[in-house]
Design a protein that fits this description.
With about 120 residues, this protein is mostly beta strands. It has strands at about 35-40, 45-55, 60-65, 80-95, 95-110, 115-120. It has a three-stranded antiparallel beta sheet with strand order 1-2-3, with no helix packed on it. A three-stranded antiparallel beta sheet has the order 4-5-6, with no helix packed on it. It starts with about 35 loop residues before the first strand and ends with a strand.
Length: about 120
């Protein structure tokens, strides 16, 4: 079973609640094939999680926190931050042939500094 260590420790973002306000995902709760993606960012730090179950050894799951002193989205006009996260899990059984496909991707854009993580199987 895949767990996200420290996920609930990410800070709240002003009026917008942090991850502690949302339920933690549980992999392998009756579904052997699943995917999860999450991203959060504030100036100077971002957290990105991209995971599939079962994990693909060739493209390992990602759970990372990036910290940097020179955030490009310091307060002021014209600065921006954006996050995107997407995941999918698909299974089919055609004439007894089972096929599974899973993927997860997160992107954080800190005023042009883009960090992207993608896992798939």
């Amino acid at each position: 079973m895949f767990r996200f260590p420290g996920f609930m420790e990410f800070p709240d973002f002003g009026a917008f609640p942090g991850p502690s306000a949302f339920p933690t995902p549980h992999f392998n709760n009756g579904n052997d094939y699943s995917a999860f993606a999450s991203a959060a960012a504030i100036p100077g730090v971002n957290r990105q999680v991209a995971a599939i179950n079962p994990e693909n050894p060739a493209v390992p799951n990602v759970d990372t926190v990036n910290r940097y002193a020179d955030s490009r989205s310091a307060p002021g006009a014209g600065n921006f931050m954006s996050v995107s996260s997407s995941s999918y899990s698909s299974s089919s059984n055609v004439n007894g042939e089972v096929k599974n496909s899973r993927g997860a991707e997160t992107v954080v854009n800190d005023n042009g500094r883009v960090t992207r993580y993608k896992v798939q199987s």
